[in-house]
Design a protein that fits this description.
The protein is α+β, with helices and mostly antiparallel strands. It has helices at about 1-20, 30-50, 55-70, 80-95, 120-125, 145-155, 215-225, 245-250, 295-305, 390-400, and strands at about 80, 95-100, 100-105, 110-115, 135, 140, 160-165, 175-180, 180-185, 190-195, 200-205, 230-235, 260-265, 270-275, 285-290, 310-315, 320-330, 335-345, 360. The chain contains ten helices and 19 strands. The strands form four sheets. Strands 3, 4, 5, 6, 7 and 8 form a six-stranded antiparallel sheet that branches.
Length: about 400
């Protein structure tokens, strides 16, 4: 039975690759030669391994696919086995028990890399930072785990503890954190008001670009403009991104017309996404960003910056300008592969570069990391005017208001 499955899988791989590679630089003959050691290894395992009767063939194939993708050296391409596919939807659609971090795989360090901790969550309160590399989970090295296995270990029942060891740039020794998991309720948009000498300012924080973000953003803007505001402070710090369509919708609320983002695939084919139209008043806008502002966040920042709709205040953004496409596999798993790069309306490729703010803020605010921050499940929040990012953002915004 195993041999039959092996033959079917092998033939399927060769047929698929032959179809795709006929016109490419790599020929089917090259692929067949490169795969020969894999076929040999699998054959030896199935036939010569001492405990061959206990072999889980599906697990072998999952590990092989995972290793194949990691061999690309692309932090943003990854494989999810069948039982893991549903978990990803939980993060974007609902709630789960965990730490509240957006992560990716770091192939260089064989670690889980933090893109951003979500505002107010256990990871955020504990002090995890964008760029931190999680190298150990409950004293088990991440290098010995599959990527999604490590992600699952970070999640768990609310109220339980997880111990992680973190490699942080500029710090010599490993940092140890013991964090209590909580139910992570994804509230994508929060808002507030700030009274200033030039009138009322609307403050909006977007925590991620999920399925409901554009709808929640529209509701927040409706509320804010009904109260009458002279400008908007849009906080995208530690926003790890999310859905492309959600970012386009949000950017469209500020850009009357024109290009929001462009994508270019491996064959040089470009797609252009334009504004869907703006029904809101054109008031001065300042966007707050930091090293944890990534992906869909950078699409919004790039669009508003290039159209001269907003001033950008904070730190250089993360620099994730790649687009991942999910390819369903016959085993029920999904291959998430980088298939395109996106560019800002002016044509800038920001991948691994990021977006440089108009006004730089070097100082970090420690006060918001106190345990008694406002409840991150609330939509209407209070603004910490002592936060150096918010202080500089308001100062910049007031200069724009005539």
């Amino acid at each position: 039975m195993r041999k039959n499955v092996f033959v079917v899988v092998a033939v399927g791989i060769v047929v698929l690759l032959t179809t795709w590679l006929l016109s490419g630089a790599v020929t089917p003959k090259d692929v067949d030669k490169a795969l020969t050691p894999f076929y040999q290894t699998l054959s030896y395992i199935l036939n010569a391994y001492y405990e061959r009767d206990s072999i889980n063939l599906n697990k072998l194939i999952d590990s092989a696919i995972d290793g194949l993708v990691k061999g690309l050296g692309d932090d943003f391409s990854y494989y999810e086995a069948a039982e893991e596919v549903e978990e990803k939807q939980i993060e974007m659609e609902g709630q789960y028990g965990g730490l509240g971090i957006e992560v990716t795989y770091d192939s260089e360090y064989k670690a889980v890399k933090v893109i951003a901790p979500m505002y107010g969550t256990p990871a955020w309160r504990a002090g995890l930072k964008p760029g931190d590399r999680i190298v150990s989970i409950d004293d088990q090295p991440v290098s010995e785990m599959q990527y999604m296995e490590a992600v699952r270990k970070l999640r768990g029942q609310p109220g339980t503890k997880v111990k992680i060891k973190v490699l942080r740039e500029g710090v010599q020794e490993l940092l140890t954190f013991e964090i209590v998991r909580e139910v992570i309720q994804i509230i994508p948009v929060k808002y507030a008001y700030v009274e200033t000498q030039k009138g009322r300012i609307g403050y909006i924080m977007i925590t991620r670009f999920g399925a409901k973000t554009s709808q929640e953003m529209a509701s927040a803007l409706d509320e804010i403009f009904q109260k009458g505001v002279q400008g908007i402070l849009l906080d995208l710090r530690n926003n790890p991104g999310g859905y492309l369509n959600s970012a386009i919708d949000v950017a469209s609320y500020f850009v009357d017309k024109g290009v929001i983002v462009k994508t270019r695939n491996a064959y040089g084919v470009e797609e252009v996404y334009e504004s869907k139209g703006n029904k809101y008043p054109n008031v001065p806008v300042v966007i707050l960003v930091n090293k944890g502002s990534a992906s869909a966040s950078e699409i919004v920042v790039g669009a508003l910056k290039d159209h001269n709709v907003a001033k950008i205040v904070g730190q250089r953004t993360f620099g994730k300008g790649s687009v991942q496409t999910g390819f369903p596999l016959a085993n029920g798993g999904t291959l998430y592969l980088t298939t395109a790069r996106y560019m800002t309306p002016s044509g800038k490729d920001i991948h691994r570069i990021g977006i440089v703010p108009d006004v730089v803020v070097e100082e970090e605010s420690e006060k918001p990391r106190e345990t008694l921050v406002y409840d991150y499940t609330k939509k209407v929040v209070e603004v910490n005017l002592e936060d150096p990012f918010i202080a500089k953002g308001l100062e910049t915004l007031l200069e724009l208001i005539k």
